[in-house]
Specification:
The protein is of the alpha+beta class. It is 44% helix and 15% strand. Strands 2-1-3-4-5 form a 5-stranded mixed sheet. The longest helix has 23 residues, at 76-98. The N and C termini lie far apart (57 Å).
Length: 224
């Protein structure tokens, strides 16, 4: 049965207008962006399939255009529209996290970098610059690599730390393979950065490795 044949206040758009967006399920909200479903499936059915395929909104926010287009019933036009909406939502989440954010736990940091680095399809090495109260000054992507890795230069990191007058930093990089594990190379460059920044009394609080749906914290694992 198509959505237009549903009872009036069970249709997503009408429910939103009558009660507010907060009363819609994740699938109903996604369905509003999709507009229409596919043969034999309503937009809500298609939205439920999307959420089930990706494991929820968090992973859907990190989906690529290619991944979306592989879903049966979601062609390039709908995938592009949905990707634009998801990117807007991701940027809004990042803005909220960055605005006056005090990083007081590994979980907060991991959530931040999940949204910042999760969608990237090549390796990116980022740095959060913090003041003495561990309030975020800014986040910068410092180095870019291929799917296999990025070259990280401690000298360039020191230049940016001094530029921002940071008292502490948190590093992060993504593994496009999806595996959130600390490689030997990850450990070596972290040790080099800790040593280099220690010379100017700047603390390295953590190094986050972002995988597919999971993140590893060096601090939590006792690696830093």
């Amino acid at each position: 049965m198509s959505i237009k044949h549903w009872p009036h206040l069970e249709r997503p758009r009408e429910k939103l207008l009558a009660r507010g967006a907060q009363f819609l399920s994740d699938a109903e909200l996604v369905a509003l962006f999709l507009g229409t479903g596919s043969r034999g499936r309503t937009a809500v059915d298609l939205a439920r399939d999307l959420l089930g395929e990706f494991g929820g909104l968090g992973q859907l926010l990190s989906a690529s255009l290619q991944q979306l287009c592989e879903i049966n019933g979601l062609g390039p036009a709908k995938a592009s529209q949905l990707l634009a909406i998801l990117e807007l939502a991701r940027r809004q989440l990042l803005e909220n996290l960055e605005r006056g954010l005090v990083l007081d736990s590994a979980e907060t940091t991991k959530r931040y970098f999940h949204y910042h680095l999760g969608p990237r399809h090549r390796e990116v090495f980022s740095c959060l610059f913090l003041d003495s109260q561990h309030t975020v000054i800014c986040c910068e992507d410092l180095f870019w690599g291929t799917i296999d890795g990025a070259s990280v230069h401690p000298r360039e990191v020191l230049i940016r730390v001094l530029h921002h007058n940071a008292a502490a930093v948190i590093f992060a990089h993504n593994h496009p393979s999806g595996v959130a594990q600390a490689s030997q190379a990850d450990r070596r460059i972290t040790e080099r950065l800790v040593e280099a920044l220690g010379l100017i009394d700047v603390r390295v609080l953590d190094h986050i490795v972002v995988g597919s749906g999971e993140q590893l914290s060096f601090a939590e694992r006792g690696l830093i």
